[in-house]
Amino acid sequence: MPTLREIGEIEAVSRLRAARLETPGVVVGPGDDAAVLRPPAAAELVATTDVLVEGRHYRSDWIQAAALGERLVAANLSDLAAMAARPLWALVSIGARSEHDIEDLLRLQAGIARALEAHDAAVVGGNLAAVEGAEWFALTLLGEVEPGCAWTRSGARPGDLIAVSGAPGRAGAAVRLLQALGIAEVAQTAPELLLAWSSPADRIELAGALSRAGGVTAAIDISDGMAGDLAQLCEASGVGAELDERAWPADAALALAAERLDVALDDLRFGPSDDYELLLAVDPASRDACGRAAADLGVPLAVVGRFTEAPGVLAWRTREGALAALPGRGYDHFGSA
Amino acid sequence: MPTLREIGEIEAVSRLRAARLETPGVVVGPGDDAAVLRPPAAAELVATTDVLVEGRHYRSDWIQAAALGERLVAANLSDLAAMAARPLWALVSIGARSEHDIEDLLRLQAGIARALEAHDAAVVGGNLAAVEGAEWFALTLLGEVEPGCAWTRSGARPGDLIAVSGAPGRAGAAVRLLQALGIAEVAQTAPELLLAWSSPADRIELAGALSRAGGVTAAIDISDGMAGDLAQLCEASGVGAELDERAWPADAALALAAERLDVALDDLRFGPSDDYELLLAVDPASRDACGRAAADLGVPLAVVGRFTEAPGVLAWRTREGALAALPGRGYDHFGSA
Predict the structure, then answer these.
(1) B297 pLDDT exceeds 60?
(2) Which of A137, B85, B157, B178 could form a disulfide with B46 if both were Cys (CB 3.0 to 4.6 A apart)?
(3) CA A129 and chain centroid, separation
């Protein structure tokens, strides 16, 4: 199990790119100064970048290398899903310590490749740098969307429905449990939450199906938490939002986590959580078509409220009918909000 | 001078993207989940990524924030130049400490923007993450090239000439002087070397002119050092190389640095150095045309040897006519080579 220091940078880079498959549109792949790519005809490109920082976004005892690679791709796929786009090519930038085992990096790279291959996408280039402190793994993902068909954050209108995929809040709850109890305990007692964090669902197919169904007027991915991302979508669209507790999907695992952490359930529902789920504004006329599209894929899609005319006001109608400010807040990496 | 912690992530990200200009082909710019871009008609895309890591590639007392941003762009422009491509759009990924002054980050961002604007290119997206140790700044650069016109590392043939732009070795010499003597001393006594490191020349125009002139059969940028990058080009092309000392451009500043550092001049000429100069294989029939193209731009382009049939053999013919192994070696970030 040689380290990066033992095999050296050139050999490490060479091994990391050895396993690449042939990918559509790749004219010059990894190993030259840059990749050369043939853009799809009659499509727009979509580009995003995201990073996982050791100690900040993960701890190495919480997640294995391959799953970390898949999660890095998931973070970027989620941005593409929020634009109704499909992935094509990725570039990976790694900051690793000299004592990092090359086999471990190869497993991470394999996780990245596997998550991309599910969409016929692949890594076409990258960079490997030596670091002394925390490691980090950054991915830039390029995708495609039909011209004029990209969703944005800014199209929501008062009266549009608020729809959300999956079970938001689980990833954030898993991180809080991991911090409080450690990986062994969480793996045994809250495996479904741990999985939501370590292996988030991929919403590219759902986004494609909803885009074809029509009626989605705005979208954002939940990467900060429901309250934080809803606030960003509302700000971009100039609207407010009212969520209805009676419509919110029941989640026994989340409720149990709230008990164990001794926090309010709403903190976990709406607070910091990078679930990589879709938060959508949907024209009421398209409610059924979108519902069917999600059901056909077996993906939960809940209508949990509606957008309002009050810009920036996030309201929460409780089970008892009272109207309150929406609890929770997005995650601030710099700790000030 | 508020820090990132004081203003918080959302406000910091918002300020960092505030200064964007309108850029050709940008359908959805910074501020959404991803950028949407209109690829140029009848062109291939070129994509590369590079990073500057604090303590590894720079020290904050060696270079000001705006120049660091420009140097980050230069590292990526250099990869595009080596493919004969032109830049279009960039994504920036930043790992910064919470106590980092936002004004300083804005100056870095302005440096990035300025270096891109020179080519009508711009930042279209990015990411800001909190780190506790060394900071890092990663850039992914997308560009364009006419279909089939990208240079690669693999086209050099025995008999092709070896050409190199600028004054290779200066950036590496500057770093060694900075490490030995500190910034104040180097700024006073070796300003031309410091400038070669802190503000490397941009070879996009040169590459375009040489591509139009024709006859370049392979290319690589000098980002590891002359010997290391020449070895990589030779390996990719399956050829060897023989450099001729009599043809190597005289460089009094480099010679003085060798004296002050008490190292052999050849170590500085060929050893670790990220000069972001072009190292080219040129068909002998195109020597004059390429020379004129460079001269028209006022860029030094020296023919310093030729490629040979001996795969992987890097030879050096001294002023006295003796043939030796090429001194120097590329920089290994992990310290093993």
Answers:
(1) yes
(2) B85
(3) 25
Q: How much is the pTM?
A: 0.94
Taking the CA of residue A256 as centre, how many other CA atoms within 13 Å lie in the half-sphere pointing to its CB? 10
Q: Give the pLDDT band of residue B16 (cuts 50, 70, 90).
A: confident
Q: Do B6 and A152 touch (CB under 8 A)?
A: no
The neighbouring-strand residues paired with A46 are A143, B36
Q: What ipTM was assigned to the predicted interfaces of this complex?
A: 0.93
Instruction: Tell me if residue A173 falls in helix, strand or coil.
Output: helix
Beta strands A86-96; A122-130: pairing state = parallel
Q: Which helix (H) or strand (E) holds A49?
A: strand A44-53
Cα–Cα dist A64/B246, whole Å: 55
For residue A334, the chain B residue with the least C-alpha distance is: B5
- Write the single-letter amino acid at A71: R
Choose among B307, B330, B308, B327: nearest CA to B318. Answer: B327
Mean pLDDT within B173-195: 97
Q: Is the pLDDT of residue A204 over 80?
A: yes
Look at A34 and B47 and tell me if their CB atoms are within 8 Å. yes
Q: Kindly state the average pLDDT of the residues B41-45.
A: 93
- Of A138, A221, A333, which is closest to B33 when you measure between CB atoms? A221
Other CB atoms within 10 A of residue B321 CB = 9
Does B330 have pLDDT greater than 60?
no
CA of B204 to nearest chain A CA: how many angstroms apart? 14
Mean pLDDT, residues A159-169 taken together: 97
- In what side-by-side order are the strands of the sheet with A240-244? A216-222, A277-282, A161-165, A301-308, A240-244, A314-317, A323-325
Rounded-to-5 percentages of helix, strand, coil across chain A: 40, 25, 35
Strands A301-308 and A240-244, sheet pairing: antiparallel
Mean pLDDT across A137-147: 98
Residue A10 has pLDDT above 90, yes or no: no
- Measure Cα distances from A94 to A31, A91, A197, B51, B337 in Å: 16, 10, 21, 9, 19
Interface contact B27-A93, CB threshold 8 A: no
Length of chain B: 337
Find the closest chain A residue to B46 by CA distance.
A36
Helices (H), B2-153: 4-7, 9-16, 65-81, 102-117
Q: What is the pLDDT of residues B200-254, one digit of tens each?
A: 999 999 999 999 999 999 999 999 999 999 999 999 999 999 999 999 999 999 9
User: What stretches of A146-269 adopt beta strand conformation (E)?
Assistant: 161-165, 216-222, 240-244
Residues of B in contact with A91 (CB under 8 A): 47-49, 140
Q: What is the DSSP string of B109-150?
A: HHHHHHHHHTTT-EEEEEEEEE-SSS-EEEEEEEEEE-TT--
Test B36 with A83 for CB contact under 8 angstroms: yes
Residue A64: count of CB within 10 angstroms of its CB: 15
Query: Which residues have CB under 8 Å from B18's CB, separation 6+?
Result: none
Across chain A, what does the average pLDDT equal? 94
List all residues 6 or more positions away from A157 whose beta carbon is below 8 Å from its beta carbon: A217, A237, A239, A281, A307
**Sign, Cα dihedral of B102, B107, B113, B116:** negative
